[in-house]
Amino acid sequence: MASDDTPSIAYTIAQVGPHKDGLLVRFEGVSDREAAEALRGTSFTIAADERRDLDSEEFWPDDLVGCTVVDAAGESLGTVESVVFGAAQDRLSVRTPDGSVEVPFVDAIVPIVDLDARRIVMTPPIGLFPSNEEPG
Fold this sequence. Notes:
Helix content is 7%, strand content 36%. By secondary structure, it is mainly beta.
């Protein structure tokens, strides 16, 4: 596991356990509370080849970023710029020519994710994107 420090620092997880509404993680070499609190706000990553295997309907957020987003007719809606994590559902932040749109990442709106083609097909409700406003 590596941190977002520059240069990145490698950490080894020594122990993980439930704590309040999350997890309490102890790293080797981080031996006291002061050292642990110094890591607050740090992002940690693992190499792609060390990740667990995903189910067919699961995706790594960084694999979605940069995917082209199209509607069912193949018309471009934008590009995924980030994944926003939520309590009820995650959302895809899609960069359009008019700005960003957050789209609920649910099967009814995002029926197809083709990572090989780097393409996501959406069936957004009318008005979610400026390009699919109701006529008239």
